[in-house]
Design goal:
Layout lengths: L3 E5 L6 H8 L2 E9 L2 E12 L2 E7 L3 E3 L4 H16 L2 E7 L6 H10 L6 E6 L4 H6 L12 E3 L8 H8 L4
Parallel strand pairs: 1-4, 1-6, 6-7, 7-8
Antiparallel strand pairs: 2-3, 3-4, 3-5
This protein binds guanosine-5'-diphosphate (GDP) and magnesium ion.
The site of guanosine-5'-diphosphate has 14 residues, from helix 1.
Family: Belongs to the TRAFAC class TrmE-Era-EngA-EngB-Septin-like GTPase superfamily. EngA (Der) GTPase family.
Subunit structure: Associates with the 50S ribosomal subunit.
Organism: Reichenbachiella agarivorans
């Protein structure tokens, strides 16, 4: 496999909603490791004739008290190992959180393309607010999207597939 897009970010930002929009076939892989049930979802998508695998990260079902830190570590490790391109998803409605900043600090070190995706930009006001995520200090432009409606996803994918 060569063209792999990983969707990362803290819980509830909309990773799975985007995943479901992007993929046509899916496969859940469950594994059990040191008391943590983890499910990774792999799917296959296509845009402008380019085919790619999408990974929905962060599918923890249960885990330790330190679940947030554990999620960051696992997601970044997987993205490092497997991804060609990484989407770092944040949430316009919630705005910037400490966990977003923690994620950004680690992703900034990666030698792979990372795109900042400000999800839930459901209306022009929220779209405007997405510019606050430039403060995360990643090289990427901030792509405002609504995974629920699909708006903005075309512009994002146009950029993503340049790496495939
Ligand atoms: P994940 O935990 O990052 O995988 O997030 P989910 O995809 O499960 O979404 C978390 C919640 O956000 C769900 O209630 C979704 O319906 C909602 N959601 C996802 N995308 C959007 C969006 O573009 N706009 C709005 N308003 N809600 C969304
Ligand atoms: Mg999810």
């Amino acid at each position: 496999m060569s063209n792999i897009l990983a969707i990362t970010g803290r819980p509830n930002v909309g990773k799975s909603t985007l995943f479901n929009r992007l993929v046509e076939f899916k496969k859940a892989i469950m594994d059990n490791e040191s008391g943590v049930t983890r499910d990774r979802h792999y799917g296959f998508g296509q845009w402008t004739g380019k085919y790619f695998t999408v990974i929905d990260t962060g599918g923890y079902v249960m885990g330790s008290d330190d679940i947030f830190e554990e999620q960051i570590r696992e997601q970044v490790k997987m993205a490092l190992d497997e991804a060609t391109v990484i989407l770092f998803m944040v949430d316009c409605k919630d705005g910037m959180t400490d966990m977003d900043k923690d994620f950004a600090n680690i992703l900034r070190e990666l030698k792979k393309p990372v795109y900042v995706v400000a999800n839930k930009a459901d209306n022009p006001d929220l779209e405007m607010q997405s510019s606050e995520f430039y403060a995360l200090g990643l090289e990427s432009e901030v792509f405002s999207i609504s995974s629920a409606s699909g708006s903005g996803t075309g512009e994002l994918l146009d950029q993503v597939v340049t790496h495939f």
